[in-house]
Write a structure and sequence with these properties.
Elements lengths: L9 H15 L5 E6 L3 E8 L2 H8 L14 H14 L5 E7 L4 H13 L2 E7 L9 E2 L2 E2 L14 H10 L1 E6 L5 H6 L28 E4 L16 E7 L6 H22 L3 H7 L3 H10 L3 H7 L5 H14 L2 H14 L4 H78 L1 H11 L3 H45 L3 H19 L5 H16 L10
Parallel strand pairs: 3-4, 3-8, 4-7
Antiparallel strand pairs: 1-2, 1-9, 3-9, 5-6, 8-9
């Protein structure tokens, strides 16, 4: 269904047609199924077409766990949905470019016996076209390019066997209008009007079980894998009103949460959702990663995978790696987990490299600071020594000048000279007293000098602390570089896919493994 004989390709055109069908359905219920080598329910019967449209966006080749084209299994599950919901009749619409008629024809006849018609919308052209891939085009086992052509005859016979209608996809709405079932008001009532979901009210349109069959090659992870969708529509209201009401109410809570998530109302969705899965998704979207991590903690491979995503988005990269490793122990070959683990490893490696560079820069800055402080201390000490030497020289010159002046004065004044001589003949007691006074002066000078040095040291420490605080603040260039590094890490983390299709893929893988199915058919390509 990735062939481009109709633009943009068969798959996208088929999705457009489903959207057109959903827009036209004002009443009644619709279900969407997909199938390849097995069949899976995307959305059960619901009147909430917005949810189906939302899930339709997630349909892609890589969500199916097994290769094949088992439309017979899909048709059987379509019948089960109608029967379990209590519907007396229904319509199945198969949208496909080809079908295994031998297996599907008998199932279609069985559905018809239960008042379930099967119609077909054929997608593609008789000429066909190659299926493009990143490596060129899809080839078969012999190396020849595959050119899938529309299997008009087989699809037409399938519709005839199911007493339904057949149409080839068109550029307008004529195909959809032709295929839409017409239901009378009489046929729209249940056997017991009192037990119906809405009493005294006719149903304009019954539910559809839509088997949208869209086989195409899975390009991302599993080459050669086919996927098909089924749209199912029923014609009458359910026989069991209790079962219908319970299912409808349960689905609506999570469907409403899905709509709220799609509209960006993540916090409201968290309060609305009933199932842990949707609560976890809403918590993840609300960036409540701690809560999401707990909700995903179910011990399964998917749980550990989603835990890893939550931790990675929160920036806890090491813990995210541990969660991915636990998931891979359970499911070693899961492509999503391996990819996300690789991205987180790269982000963690870049973060560690950035931290190392920052630490090296800090060490270099500190070394430069220490050298600057040492140079400043040496400079201050040299300056102090020079000043002291200069002062000593001045004091010496002053003393010499005073002594010379005193000698001149003494020579001119004999009486003064005599007094000085007498004074020089001081008693021992006077000498001791003079010595004590001199020692006291020297002690005071020393204390003053030490106090001055202490003040200078404290001032120097304050200046150093101030310089360090200033240097801690990054310059505009450093801030820009830091922002670039953070952005680079965020870019790695953004490569972790926030893909709604991943939920479907893991859900289908789990269901398939639980069923332990083994496909009995394989494509040659």
């Amino acid at each position: 269904m990735l062939a481009t004989d109709i633009k943009p390709n068969r798959l996208e055109r088929a999705k457009f047609k489903i959207s057109d069908i959903l827009e036209q359905r004002k009443d009644g219920q619709t279900a969407l199924l997909v199938y390849a080598g097995d069949a899976f329910v995307v959305t059960p019967l619901t009147d909430d077409t917005e949810t189906i449209a939302l899930m339709l966006k997630a349909i892609s080749p890589n969500i199916m766990p097994v290769q094949g084209s088992r439309v017979d299994i899909a048709l059987g599950k379509a019948q089960d949905l109608l029967t379990q919901a209590g519907y007396l009749a229904g319509d199945v619409l198969v949208i496909s470019d080809g079908v295994n008629l031998s297996k599907a024809k008998s199932v279609v006849k069985k559905l018809l016996e239960n008042n379930i018609k099967t119609s077909v919308l054929a997608v593609g052209t008789k000429q066909g076209s190659p299926i493009p891939t990143q490596q060129g085009f899809v080839k078969d086992r012999s190396g020849n390019i595959v050119v899938p052509k529309l299997q008009t005859s087989a699809l037409r016979q399938l519709a005839a066997a199911g007493n339904g209608r057949f149409a080839i996809i068109s550029g307008d709405s004529s195909d959809v209008n032709y295929l839409a079932p017409k239901v009378s008001k009489d046929n729209g009532q249940t056997k017991s009007e009192e037990d119906s979901f809405e009493t005294a009210k006719y149903i304009d349109e019954g539910p559809w079980l839509a088997l949208l069959l869209l086989p195409f090659v899975a390009l991302l992870f599993r080459k050669g894998l086919l996927l098909s969708l089924i749209l199912v529509v029923g014609l009458q209201t359910p026989e069991s009103s209790y079962a219908f009401e319970w299912q409808d109410l349960w689905l609506n809570a999570d469907q409403k949460a899905a709509r709220q998530i799609n509209q960006g109302e993540h916090e409201q969705a968290l309060a609305t959702a009933k199932s842990d899965q949707w609560k976890a998704v809403a918590a993840y979207k609300s960036e409540e990663f701690d809560q999401a991590k707990e909700l995903f903690n179910d011990g399964s491979a998917d749980g550990y995978y989603n835990q890893g995503n939550s931790l990675a988005q929160k920036g806890q990269l090491k813990q995210a790696l541990e969660a991915y490793e636990k998931s891979l122990k359970i499911r070693p070959d899961d492509a999503d987990t391996l990819y996300n683990k690789e991205q987180v490893e790269k982000a963690l490696e870049q973060q560690q490299q950035q931290n190392k560079e920052n630490q090296d820069q800090q060490d270099q800055d500190q070394q430069n600071k220490d050298q600057q402080n040492k140079d400043q201390e040496n400079k201050d000490q040299q300056q102090s020594e020079d000043q002291q030497s200069e002062q000593d020289q001045k004091d010496k010159e002053q003393q010499q000048g005073d002594k010379q002046q005193q000698n001149e004065d003494d020579a001119d004044n004999p009486e003064q000279q005599e007094k000085q001589q007498q004074s020089s003949e001081m008693t021992d007691e006077e000498k001791q007293q003079q010595q004590k006074e001199q020692e006291a002066l020297e002690k005071a000078d020393k204390e003053a000098e030490e106090k001055q040095k202490q003040q200078e040291k404290e001032q120097q420490e304050k200046e150093q602390q101030k310089q360090q605080e200033q240097q801690v603040q990054l310059s505009p260039e450093e801030l820009a570089e830091d922002a670039e590094n953070k952005e680079a890490i965020e870019q790695w983390l953004r490569r972790i896919p926030d893909d709604p299709g991943g939920l479907l893929r893991r859900k289908f893988y789990y269901q398939y493994n639980q069923q332990n199915n083994k496909p009995d058919e394989q494509q040659d390509w």
